[in-house]
Amino acid sequence: MNDFFLHAFLALDAVLIAPFRLVDDARAGFACGILATALGAALLGRACAAAVDRVQRAKRNRQEAEIKRHQELSISALAVKDRETYLAANHLAQEAYGNAMALAAGRAAALIWPALMVLAWSTWRFSGVPLPLVGESAGPAVFFIPAYLAAQWGLGRLKRARAVRRGRTGA
């Protein structure tokens, strides 16, 4: 079993280090590797979040409908000054809201786990290595986090532009 994990780790290490070795210059290779791993982590995170969203869709819709139903019931109970019904409906709405928030936390975890994995790997891989511009005073997170955030921002913009284009064409 330990051999399996060792071989899996070595295979993952080979995949992740490959973009760092695309160019001969160390600084350019480091920049290429950071950008490639950030983009890869962002893409994998978006794919995982979409998959989790797909799996959770029915339950999420049920929870949102339940929130709306209990919220409307509590508002109508408030209008007729029925305190007990208002408190009971409000409690059920809060419970459904908590369930919806837990589902959202699952989607968020699916979005960021690849970035955390790459960050852990790069910290291990470049431990003790002087990095461009910062030397040994900072780790690869200084470069990875802004690149990852930029990749997420860019992918978000692409997704919105694609949705707008689909809306215009009616597809």
TrEMBL record:
It comes from the Bacteria. Keywords: Membrane, Transmembrane, Transmembrane helix. The lineage of its organism: Bacteria, Pseudomonadati, Thermodesulfobacteriota, Desulfovibrionia, Desulfovibrionales. The chain crosses the membrane at residues 27-52, 100-121, 141-158. It comes from Solidesulfovibrio carbinolicus. This is DUF106 domain-containing protein.
